Every structure is written in structure tokens, then in C-alpha cells.
């Protein structure tokens, strides 16, 4: 009965909607039933409706909420320990700004130009969700099982992201900061059981809100992003007040001292700079960690409204805002905290000292108040990271499941409706309740990647429990370090290298895609033969190369220096946990991805040998114009590609078919396609079990599947 209710819910969801602008016929209830239940090999997902797509604010807040985490509060001390120089520390933070802007340019270039298809006779790109997975497979298409089917690079990235691309570390540190904000007198005496229990609760809440209400999760993300910006502005305001002599200690009435002159004097700024190469390496690693997170919109690019306009504007604006705030906040730390305290781990982090000397000075108990404010702000920052990472990482894992190398791909990749809108619809139909327009079911009824959220939650729970023997601080350092090292640095290095390869080696050949509304057509205009021509109107070639080089050097630097043993002050920092754990475990996970790929090849070869079956993988997309004015075929580029003045095509629907079929069907298809007419008329025609679906005639046109 519940199953039938779900089918009729889908029908009610279609009522009152405007007709499809490209004239797509209304899908029947039987089609929906077939797609969702009867064919375990078919994955059918539709893009969000127009009112549910992400706008400029939503996309900007994804970046802001992910970038502003614990790094801006904890990294300044690591930087000062590594450099022992306030001047060099500020210069490194300025270099971090250029690194972030270069990385943002790399992701915008990929997002606007990859993947590429030939549609309506025009080679063009169609922005889609999946981020790094799409880009790495485009640039490194070999080794592979077949063309566009289970690539080595896809397995490397997919398995790595499933293992470490989650919120476990942030959940642990968020739980710790909540306890320390509530009980600052306990310091680090909170039990591991308390911390892990709260961490699991936080992880469950984040997954639940994104499964139950996609729109609610986005609103929560936006609120937290704005709160984080407010926290950084509060720090800047407090520093300005200290500089103006407005902060006075509650116990003595004296003004809080302005340390900017002392911290920026020639002797302090550069006179005692460290000569340890490892220290500078660790310092820049901490800065890169603080600036990471600008890749989040690429994970959900298919859900952005008018992505060719919204995505680059929101990306560059939000990255620039956060980067400038970071530099400003570090200058503010120089106003309040003396240089000798900034590198002293015994008295706490630089941010802790800042809040103690400003807001803590307003209370009679300076230490407790400063610690409470500091931990509260860190808890908010960590929770914001959890919310945004849950939303974006679930979409990434959904795209990974579509590749076909995971078990139960339909469960992990299929969207399901367990939304708040469905509850409102049930109350309206069965209880006769009436709601305001804001609470109308159609405003909140949408499908979410429930299976991918389950996978996301499962990996998070495993990591929280596996790291139980470690302290909360060490567990956070290990888990966040693995994510930053493997996902951001290692694969970031490959992405930057990919841009250079596209420029100097050339891009791979694009495949023609035909759909019901975009049939095969003659090529229009001269074909683009190089990456410069393909990306015309979206990026400047010289800036593309420069950004890729900066991003390549920054990530390569991190990959290499993590293998340099710590010396000097960093020996004390790493004494509770072996320094080499992060890179070793990260590379073990990377190798696991390679073994997974080899295991898949062994499986398909064994199945072909024992059961005479081969693996079929087929995508059937459907596109529509992002803007009404583009439907006249004006692509906005002399080469026939998509220019910056055009909204271009967007993905509105996709069917992924994954199955094992006997190789006899392949032979039959080849015979029929060769024009062999010796088949007897009396011979019964093979039954096409996919007739009437996107895969009709698959038995007679099987080379389109197996030829890849």
C-alpha cells in the first residue's frame, strides 16, 4: 500500500506544473513504476525543479561555509611556530590568497567546460554534478574497462572519496568544542564516550536534515555561512576597538594593549625568522588547509540555476571575500596577541588568546570567558562544515555509485522522496489540513539522495569508532589531515596537471550524444581543435596556465613535504601521534582504489568465462536550455561552442543502465547490423524486452553499448 501511495504522490506532484518547454510528453505512472521498482538495473534521476535550484547566494554560501572552518582559528599558531616571524607569517597568508584564487580558477574552468559532448552538431559542454570525478576521468581516460566504463582514475578517486570524504573529523571536534564551551573549567577532561556519542548525534542530524528537506538543509547552510562571516567581522571589529583603546579590563580598568607596533617592528617581523625548511613546509600546509573548500559548488553543479552565469560569479566572489577576511583577521591577531604568545602552545591557540584578551577582558574571569567564546565559535564553524559537506559529498557519492563499480549501485545512486513535502501532502490528503502557501506540499516535496546519505553516514560512523583509541584532538588531526592530503592535495595535483595537459597535449575527442529532443545533426561551424578554442569565452588561456601552475606547485608542495620528518618545535607537536600516519594511510587508501579497479577486471573476466556475460554500462541523458533566449540555437561562440553570453544546455534528466548480459546478444546485434538477410522468415524474432524505454532495440543495436 505504501508503494502505491508513492506512485500517486508522484502523479500529484506533476499536477499544476507548466508544460515542458521542450515539449517532452508527460511520463506515465507505469513508466515511473517501472523506473523506480521493476528494473533493478536502471537508475533514473531528474534534476531539481527550477524553484529548487541553487541561486547566487546559495552557491556563495556553499563556498563560505566550507572554507571558514577551524583553520582560521588554529592554523595561525602553526604558521608562527614554523616561521617564528610575524612578517613572513603574513606573507604566507597573502600567498594563500593567491593559491585559493588560482584553485578557484581551475575549478571554474573545469566546471564550465567539462564534460563535453557533440549535441545538435555542436561540440559543447554541459555542466553536471560530480566535480573532480568528471574532470579526472576526462583528462585521464585510461586505463579503463571500456570507453567511458569503469576507469582506473574513477576508482582511485571514488574509493578515496568514500573513505575520507566525510564529516567524521569535524563531528568529533565539534562535539569536543561543544563540551568545552559548556564546561570550560573541564578543559580536556571530557571522556571519549561523551565526545563520540555527541559526534554520532551530530552526524545523524546532518544526514537527516538533508534527506528530509533539501531546501531546509540549504537554508541552514546559508544561515551558518552568514554567521561565520559575522564571527570574522566581529574579530575585525574587536581589533579595531583595541587599536582605538576602547577595550578595558574589568578587574583593573586599564586598556587592552595594542601590540601591532611591536609585532610589525623590523626585529620581530623578520629579525628572528626560522631557518628550518620543515617548519616553513608545515606552515604552508596549515594555510592550504585553512583555504581549502572552494571546490564545493562543482560537486552539485547540476543543481545550480543558470550555472554558466551563477557558478563563476558566486565562486570568485565568495573565495575573494573569505581570502580577504583571512588576511584581515591575521592582521587583527597582530594587533592584540604578542608575538611570543602566538607561538606558545602552552597558553592555547592564537585565536584563544585573542578572545581571552578582548571579550575575556570584559569579565572578571578572563580565562573562562575567553575560552567559552573561543570554543563556541569553533563549534559553530565545525558544524557549518558538517552541514555543507553532508549536502555536497552525498551528491558526489551518488555520482560515484553511477559509475558501476560499487555494490548495490541503484540503492546508492537513486533519489528517493522522504521529504517534508511528502508528509505535508499526506496530512493534506488524509487529515484534510490546510496550509499557508509557504507550507504547501509542492514547495517542499523533492527527491533526495537517501542511499548516498546512508553511505556517507556509514563511512562517518566507521571512522568515528575506529579512531576511538585516539584523543579527540588527535582523531580530528588524523581524519582532517587525510582528507586534505588525499582529496585536496593529491587529486588537486592531478587536476592542475590536467589543465596543463589539455593546453599542451590537447583534449580527448568528444562523443556525439543524441536524445529524443536532440537528434543527430551535421556539425555546425568549424570544429574546435584545441583547448584554447574549446574554452573561448569562458577563460583566458594565459590565466588558465598561470592558475594551473600555482595550484600544481601548491599541492605538489603539500604532497612532498608531508614525508619530511618534523624537527625542532614540531617534534613536540607530533609526539602524541606518529607524524607519518597521515601520508601512509592516505596512500594506502589510494592503493585500495587501484586494487578495487583490478578486482573489478577480475570479476568481469571471471563472469565472462564462467557465465558468458559482459558488463553493460549506458547513460541516456536529456537536456534543456538554461534560458528561454537560447532555444533559437544561438550558442554564443564563433566556434559553435558555448560563450559567456549564453546559458547553454543543462542536464534535466538522466537514466543510467547497469547490467550483465550474455554475449550472444552481442553476436546477434553484429549479424543484424551487417545486413545479413539469411534469417528465415519463419524464424521467431527476438523479443526486445526494453521496447518503449530509453533502451529500446538494445538487442539489435548492441554495438553502441559494447563498442565502447
Automatic annotation (TrEMBL):
The chain crosses the membrane at residues 90-108, 150-179, 195-213, 225-247, 280-301, 313-336, 373-394, 450-470, 482-502, 542-564, 584-602. It is found in: Membrane. Residues 1-26 are annotated as: Disordered. It comes from the Eukaryota. It is a multi-pass membrane protein. The keyword tRNA processing does not apply. GO terms for molecular function: L-amino acid transmembrane transporter activity. InterPro entries: AA/rel_permease1 (IPR002293), AminoAcid_Transporter (IPR050598). One of its GO terms (cellular component) is membrane. Keywords: Membrane, Transmembrane, Transmembrane helix. It holds the Pfam family AA_permease_2. Its main location: membrane. This is Amino acid permease-domain-containing protein. It comes from Lasiosphaeria ovina.
Amino acid at each position: 500500500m505504501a508503494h502505491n501511495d508513492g506512485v500517486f504522490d508522484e502523479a500529484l506532484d506533476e499536477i499544476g506544473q507548466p508544460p515542458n518547454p521542450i515539449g517532452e510528453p508527460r511520463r506515465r505512472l507505469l513508466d515511473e513504476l517501472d523506473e523506480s521498482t521493476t528494473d533493478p538495473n536502471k537508475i533514473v534521476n531528474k534534476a531539481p525543479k527550477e524553484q529548487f535550484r541553487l541561486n547566487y547566494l546559495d552557491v556563495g554560501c556553499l563556498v563560505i561555509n566550507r572554507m571558514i572552518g577551524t583553520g582560521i582559528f588554529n592554523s595561525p599558531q602553526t604558521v608562527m611556530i614554523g616561521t617564528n616571524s610575524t612578517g613572513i607569517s603574513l606573507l604566507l597568508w597573502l600567498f594563500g590568497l593567491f593559491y585559493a584564487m588560482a584553485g578557484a580558477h581551475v575549478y571554474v574552468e573545469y566546471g564550465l567546460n567539462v564534460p563535453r559532448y557533440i549535441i545538435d552538431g555542436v561540440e559543447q559542454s554541459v555542466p553536471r554534478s560530480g566535480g573532480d570525478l568528471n574532470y579526472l576521468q576526462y583528462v585521464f581516460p585510461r586505463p579503463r574497462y571500456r570507453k567511458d566504463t569503469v576507469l582506473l582514475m574513477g576508482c582511485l578517486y571514488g574509493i578515496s572519496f568514500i573513505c575520507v570524504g566525510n564529516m567524521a573529523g569535524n563531528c568529533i571536534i565539534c562535539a569536543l568544542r561543544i563540551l568545552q564551551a559548556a564546561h570550560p573549567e573541564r578543559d580536556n577532561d571530557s571522556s571519549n564516550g561523551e565526545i563520540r556519542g555527541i559526534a554520532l548525534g551530530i552526524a545523524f542530524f546532518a544526514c537527516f536534515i538533508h534527506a528530509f528537506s533539501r531546501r531546509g538543509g540549504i537554508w541552514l547552510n546559508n544561515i551558518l555561512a552568514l554567521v561565520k562571516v559575522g564571527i570574522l567581522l566581529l574579530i575585525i571589529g574587536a581589533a579595531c576597538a583595541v587599536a582605538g583603546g576602547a577595550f578595558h579590563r574589568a578587574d583593573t580598568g586599564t586598556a587592552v594593549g595594542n601590540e601591532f607596533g611591536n609585532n610589525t617592528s623590523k626585529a620581530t617581523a623578520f629579525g628572528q625568522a626560522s631557518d628550518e625548511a620543515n617548519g616553513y613546509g608545515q606552515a604552508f600546509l596549515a594555510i592550504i588547509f585553512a583555504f581549502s573548500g572552494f571546490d564545493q559548488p562543482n560537486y552539485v553543479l547540476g543543481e545550480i540555476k543558470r550555472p554558466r552565469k551563477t557558478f563563476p560569479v558566486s565562486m570568485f566572489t565568495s573565495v575573494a571575500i573569505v581570502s580577504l577576511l583571512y588576511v584581515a583577521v591575521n592582521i587583527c591577531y597582530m594587533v592584540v596577541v604578542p608575538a611570543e604568545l602566538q607561538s606558545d602552545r602552552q597558553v592555547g591557540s592564537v585565536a584563544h588568546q585573542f578572545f581571552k584578551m578582548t571579550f575575556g577582558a570584559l569579565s572578571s574571569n578572563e580565562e573562562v570567558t575567553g575560552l567559552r567564546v573561543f570554543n563556541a565559535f569553533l563549534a559553530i564553524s565545525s558544524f557549518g562544515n558538517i552541514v555543507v559537506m553532508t549536502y555536497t559529498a552525498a551528491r558526489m557519492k551518488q555520482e560515484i555509485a553511477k559509475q558501476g563499480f560499487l555494490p548495490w549501485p541503484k540503492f546508492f545512486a537513486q533519489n528517493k522522496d522522504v521529504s517534508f513535502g511528502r508528509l505535508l501532502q499526506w496530512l493534506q490528503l488524509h487529515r484534510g489540513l490546510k496550509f499557508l502557501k509557504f507550507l504547501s506540499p509542492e514547495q517542499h516535496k523533492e527527491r533526495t539522495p537517501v542511499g548516498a546519505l546512508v553511505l556517507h553516514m556509514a563511512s562517518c560512523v566507521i571512522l568515528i569508532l575506529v579512531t576511538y583509541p585516539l584523543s579527540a584532538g588527535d582523531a580530528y588531526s588524523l581524519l582532517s589531515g587525510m582528507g586534505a592530503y588525499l582529496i585536496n592535495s593529491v587529486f588537486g595535483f592531478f587536476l592542475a596537471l590536467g589543465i596543463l595537459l589539455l593546453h599542451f597535449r590537447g583534449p580527448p575527442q568528444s562523443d556525439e550524444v543524441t536524445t529524443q529532443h536532440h537528434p543527430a545533426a551535421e556539425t555546425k561551424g568549424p570544429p574546435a581543435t584545441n583547448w584554447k578554442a574549446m574554452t573561448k569565452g569562458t577563460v583566458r588561456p594565459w590565466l588558465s596556465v598561470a592558475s594551473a601552475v600555482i595550484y600544481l606547485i601548491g599541492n605538489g608542495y603539500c604532497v612532498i613535504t608531508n614525508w619530511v620528518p618534523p624537527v625542532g618545535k614540531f617534534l613536540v607537536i607530533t609526539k602524541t601521534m606518529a607524524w607519518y600516519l597521515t601520508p601512509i594511510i592516505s596512500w594506502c587508501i589510494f592503493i585500495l582504489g587501484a586494487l578495487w579497479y583490478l578486482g573489478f577486471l577480475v570479476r568481469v573476466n571471471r563472469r565472462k568465462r564462467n557465465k558468458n556475460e559482459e558488463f553493460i554500462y549506458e547513460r541516456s541523458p536529456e537536456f534543456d536550455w538554461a534560458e528561454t533566449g537560447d532555444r533559437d540555437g544561438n550558442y554564443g561562440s564563433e566556434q559553435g561552442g558555448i560563450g559567456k553570453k549564453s546559458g547553454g544546455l543543462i542536464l534535466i534528466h538522466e537514466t543510467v543502465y547497469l547490467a550483465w548480459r550474455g554475449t550472444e546478444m552481442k553476436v546477434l546485434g553484429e549479424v543484424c547490423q551487417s545486413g545479413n538477410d539469411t534469417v528465415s522468415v519463419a524464424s521467431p524474432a527476438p523479443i526486445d524486452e526494453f521496447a518503449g524505454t530509453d533502451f529500446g532495440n538494445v538487442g539489435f543495436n548492441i554495438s553502441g553499448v559494447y563498442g565502447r
